[in-house]
Structures are given as C-alpha cells and as structure tokens.
C-alpha cells in the first residue's frame, strides 16, 4: 500500500491543518482538517468502504475535497458573519 493511502498520513495532515487554524484563524484550514480527518477515519475504520472507494489517490482526493467543501460551508453557516453584524458606511467619514 502506498504511503498516501495510510490512515496516519491523513491523520497527521488533519492535525497539522487544525494547528494551522489556531495560528491563522479563518475557518478555511479547519474545513480542510475536517476533510483530512474524515479520510483518515475512512481508511482506518472503513476497510470495506475504503476498498469499495478504491483507496486510490484520485478517489481519496475527491472524498477529501467534497468533505472539506461541505465542512467549510457548514462552518461558514454556523460560525460566519451574520447579516447586519458588519457596520457599513454610505458616506465619507473623513469629510464634513
């Protein structure tokens, strides 16, 4: 089995992305961390599921991308900026 198909590689990537999220808080890296963690979980626990998916790098990358996108959209909806939360100015505050 290739190293990219090992569960611990995806797990290390998930942890590194989660640590990066703490350093650069933007909720982008957290979505990727959730995606990498999900792929690690699929490879660790879901033996038949991983075999059914093919456990090839294109398939795992696609699963990672889809789960990351869904996680990012969910985080944005749950933790994002709400309408009316941002103050906007419709005039120049530096002039009379």
From TrEMBL:
A biological process (GO) of this protein is: proteolysis
Where does the sequence pass through the membrane?
A: 12-45, 51-75
- Domain of life here? Bacteria
UniProt keywords, alphabetically = Hydrolase, Membrane, Protease, Transmembrane, Transmembrane helix
Q: Name one GO molecular function term.
A: peptidase activity
Question: What is this protein identified as?
Answer: Putative activity regulator of membrane protease YbbK
Q: Which organism is it from?
A: Roseicyclus elongatus DSM 19469
